[in-house]
Amino acid sequence: MRKLLMHACCAPCYIYIENDLRNNGLLMEDGTYEKVDYTALFYNPNIHPKVEYERRKNTFDEFCKKQECKYDIIDEYDLNGYVKYVVENVGENKKYNNRCKYCYYMRLKKVFEYAKENNFDIISTTLTISPYQNHEIIKEVGKELEKEFNIEFIYVDYRNHFREGQRMAREFGLYMQKYCGCVFSIDNGKWGY
To answer: What's the total number of domains in the chain?
Structure first.
């Protein structure tokens, strides 16, 4: 059985996926399921403000403990580093043409590093349950990192289950955030695009 490391952006996005992993396995790109030994990893160092970061991290921690699922948290908060990098490297004629691509890359690269250090075979992310995220860029970043780290990235389009996941999160009593997470998504009044 292959070992899956599932990047988790938050508990409300993980709840449906964790249930699907537990009951069916990982939904593969061809529509079949593969039983996997899965672990969730929370790594989201650029959530703003710090109290929001702590709330999301703690909600994820409590959810995983109650569900008795395997998980880890990389508890690194680095809003200043994120903002500095975005200002210097995101924009027209710069390394990244939009901040979301950098955000996906920064988080998923740490997930790949963790996977390499801990002998995981495949990686995926809960970001793909959200209709508010840019799925093409997530897939592109995942495939770039797959080549760099020689660990398979599985893109799963869970968007059809977003509302069901939200319902499950409310029933479970999870804290549910109202924006993507970074300081720019608050300032723009939208989900980070």
So the answer is: 1
Strands (E), 1-134: 3-8, 26-27, 33-34, 37-42, 71-73, 122-125
**Are 100 and 192 in contact, with CB atoms under 8 Å apart?**
yes
Nearest-angstrom CA–CA distance, 156 and 24? 14
pLDDT at 97: 82
Tokens of 91: 């924009």
CATH number at 158 reads: 3.40.50.620
Domain that residue 63 falls in: 3-188
Q: Average pLDDT for residues 34-58, to the nearest whole number? A: 96
Residue 143 lies in a domain: yes
pLDDT band, residue 44 (cuts 50/70/90): very high
**Residue 134 near residue 21, CB atoms below 8 Å:** no
Q: Is residue 165 part of a domain?
A: yes
In a domain, 193, yes or no: no
SS3 41: strand
- Structure tokens given for 17: 């996926």
Alpha-carbon distance 71 to 61, whole Å?
Answer: 8
5 DSSP β-pair partners: 39, 123
Residue bearing tokens 């390394």: 95
